[in-house]
Amino acid sequence: MHAEFCRRLRRRDPLIGTIVSLDSIAVVEIIAASGFDWLFVEAEHAPNGLAALERMLVAARDTPCLVRLPNHEPTWIKRALDLGAAGIIVPQVNSVGEAHAIAQAARFTPAGERGLGVCRANGYGYASAEYVANANAATAVLVQAEHIDAVENASSIASVDGIDGVFIGPYDLSASMGVPGEITHPDVGAAIDTVRAAFTAVGKPVGYFGTDPADVKTRIATGFSLVACDVDVLLLRAAATALAADLRATEPPPPV
Fold first, then answer.
1. CB 185 within 8 A of CB 174
2. Are 230 and 212 in contact (CB under 8 A)?
3. Among 45, 72, 100, 185, which one carries the catalytic annotation?
4. CB 158 within 8 A of CB 201
5. Which of 17, 166, 172, 213 is the most exposed place for a label (fewest CB within 10 A)?
6. How far apart are CA 250 and CA 14, in angstroms?
7. SS (H, E, C) the chain
8. Which of 209, 201, 241 minimizes the C-alpha distance to 227?
């Protein structure tokens, strides 16, 4: 169970993470041991099915994982949580109706209508009663605001019971506003501030993804408490590229 992580999330304690997208036990184990508070496990933009997610969650061990789902489908919500994720991040949530349906699918009765089965999260049935009694409080449910429609509906989405917070996707948001990739555009900044203010007003945490540590630090200083900086693939690429360039710079000159 991930009760302490969820308590820290809801208190809006600063929680630092990164995205893991590679279906590799070794990669997840290495990153989980690196000192992050949580891992953002990617199932939307990476080809990770349920079997891959299971491997990744097992490899993460005691590091809480939030799985970004590929869609809103209740089956995906249920299965990601059954595998033992600390919670879910649901992409492209643009209306209060969508947010309500997600909250219902992620919570056991009486707060929702999540189904119960024998699964990894409840110890394969050995701890079913304990799991059901505590899962609603120990499960984080976040929606992503990554479209201008979500910005316009931010206050109503923030008010939905069972939605713990929001994670802003600045790149998709900028694309929906006609300035793709321009995450520092003034209009994009204003949209991000609108979402942040709406969720902060009801005491819910706001998350942010970025690839520039300086940008992410600035976001933390301005009240973003759940942050993911960079992606395993980009970290690997940067280290490999830098190493190759460094070694090439020390090559001896060709013989005359």
1. yes
2. no
3. 45
4. yes
5. 213
6. 41
7. CCHHHHHHHHHCCCEEEEEECCCCHHHHHHHHCCCCCEEEEECCCCCCCHHHHHHHHHHHCCCCEEEECCCCCHHHHHHHHHCCCCEEEECCCCCHHHHHHHHHHHCCCCCCCCCCCCCHHHCCCCCHHHHHHHHCCCCEEEEEECCHHHHHCHHHHHCCCCCCEEEECHHHHHHHCCCCCCCCCHHHHHHHHHHHHHHHHCCCCEEEEECCHHHHHHHHHCCCCEEEEEEHHHHHHHHHHHHHHHHHHCCCCCCC
8. 209
Token pair 């999260």 in the structure block, residue? 121
pLDDT score, position 171: 92
Compute the radius of gyration of the chain from its Cα atoms. 19
- Phi/psi region, residue 12 (left: phi>0; alpha: psi -120 to 50; beta: rest), is left
How many residues are given for the chain? 256
Q: Residues 200-206: what's their mean pLDDT?
A: 98
Is the pTM value of this prediction over 0.70?
yes
Residue with tokens 């360039």: 245
Q: Are the C-beta atoms of 15 and 227 separated by less than 8 Å?
A: yes
Q: Is the pLDDT of residue 253 over 90?
A: no
Integer Cα distance of 114 and 77 in angstroms: 9
């940067």: which residue's tokens?
238
Residue 1: pLDDT band with limits 50, 70, 90: low
pLDDT of residue 256: 67
- 100 is annotated as an active-site residue: no
Cα 130 vs. chain centroid, distance in angstroms? Answer: 26
Q: Is it the case that residue 106 has pLDDT exceeding 90?
A: yes
Please choose, from the candidates 91, 62, 70, 31, the residue with its C-alpha nearest in 3D space to the C-alpha of residue 233.
31
